[in-house]
Amino acid sequence: MRHPFELQSFVDWLGKQPPDEEYNYYDEAECALGRYAQWLGMEPAAFYMAVGRTLDPLPFNPIGKVVAYLPWTYGAATQRAKELLGQ
């Protein structure tokens, strides 16, 4: 298994979510990253702090570009992530 903080790990998880399901980027527990954190067994706030130590603010880092841009569906986020990774 990949390290959970690698973008590819997040992309793998995104791809297993219902593509039409929406998430709320502005709600830390309901954001795609917040749900990913919960899936990992972490509190969203702790996950954001751990990730935030190594990344720029969400709208400006690669993962932020995946989850912050509209539309806020898992399918759209998966597509943006795959494009970011050149897949």
What does this structure look like?
Helix content is 49%, strand content 0%. The mean pLDDT is 86. It contains 5 helices and no strands. The chain has 87 residues and is mainly α.
Which terms would index this structure?
0% strand, mainly alpha, single chain
At a glance:
With 87 residues, this protein is mostly helical. It has helices at 7-14, 32-39, 44-52, 62-68, 74-84. It is built from five helices and no strands.
| Number of H/I helices | 5
What portion of residues is helical?
40-55%
The major pleated sheet works out as: none
How big a fraction of the residues is strand?
under 5%
**Helix/strand class:** mainly alpha
Question: How many E-type strands?
Answer: 0
- H/E topology pattern: HHHHH
| Unreliable sequence segments | none
Shape: globular
| Radius of gyration using CA atoms only | 12 Å
How many angstroms does the end-to-end distance come to? 19 Å
Q: What kind of assembly state do the chains in view correspond to?
A: single chain
Average pLDDT level = 86
Secondary structure blueprint with pairings:
Blueprint: H1 7-14, H2 32-39, H3 44-52, H4 62-68, H5 74-84
Helix pairs in contact: 1-5, 2-3, 4-5
